[in-house]
């Protein structure tokens, strides 16, 4: 998966959520923010983890190959989250349901779960095939009549 651009066409590293992600990773792994940011930029530029760990050691400091693999995985999840967020914001904008507060809430999300939680009230409700058939055939009234106990003559 390419991490070069997010769904809106801009650079992933320019996104404020990306900065939050880097700081979150630094806090969780007790790593130097400059090292994590440099490694993230190398990964976004398409360099592989083995290449970075061998030939870019000077820019990534004390990060181990395992740290780089973890970072790569989190960046992949981050790109998916950005695409999901942008698609859902576009849908809300098209439907005229977006507010500034809701947009800020979406922009502050760091995980797909947070995006899905905000999206839940706006998610389209699915109807079953049975419900569709009943509405088309008009059998709901017949079923209610039969269940009401009225005698058919």
Could you explain the architecture of this structure?
By secondary structure, this protein is mainly α. It has nine helices and no strands. The chain has helices at 16-29, 33-44, 49-55, 57-60, 65-95, 100-107, 112-119, 129-137, 139-147. Helix 1 (16-29) packs across helix 2 (33-44). It is elongated and about 85 Å long.
Helix-strand layout with pairing:
Blueprint (H helix, E strand, L loop, with lengths): L15 H14 L3 H12 L4 H7 L1 H4 L4 H31 L4 H8 L4 H8 L9 H9 L1 H9 L6
Helix pairs in contact: 1-2, 2-5, 3-5
Q: Approximately what portion of the residues adopt beta-strand conformation?
A: under 5%
Largest sheet: none
Gyration radius, to the nearest Å? 25 Å
* Mean pLDDT level: 78
The residue fraction in helices comes out at 55-70%
Shape: elongated
Strand segment count = 0
């Amino acid at each position: 998966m390419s991490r070069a651009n997010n769904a809106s066409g801009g650079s992933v590293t320019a996104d404020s959520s990306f900065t939050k992600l880097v700081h979150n990773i630094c806090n969780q792994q007790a790593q130097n923010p400059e090292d994590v940011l440099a490694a993230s930029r190398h990964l976004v530029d398409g360099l592989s983890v083995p290449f970075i760990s061998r030939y870019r050691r000077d820019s990534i400091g004390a990060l181990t190959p395992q740290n780089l693999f973890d970072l790569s995985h989190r960046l992949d999840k981050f790109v998916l989250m950005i695409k999901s967020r942008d698609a859902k914001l576009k849908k809300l904008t098209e439907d005229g349901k977006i507010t500034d507060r809701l947009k800020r809430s979406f922009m502050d999300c760091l995980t797909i779960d947070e995006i899905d939680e905000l999206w839940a009230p706006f998610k389209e409700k699915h109807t079953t095939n049975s419900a569709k058939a009943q509405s088309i055939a008009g059998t709901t009234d017949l079923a209610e009549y039969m269940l009401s106990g009225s005698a058919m003559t």
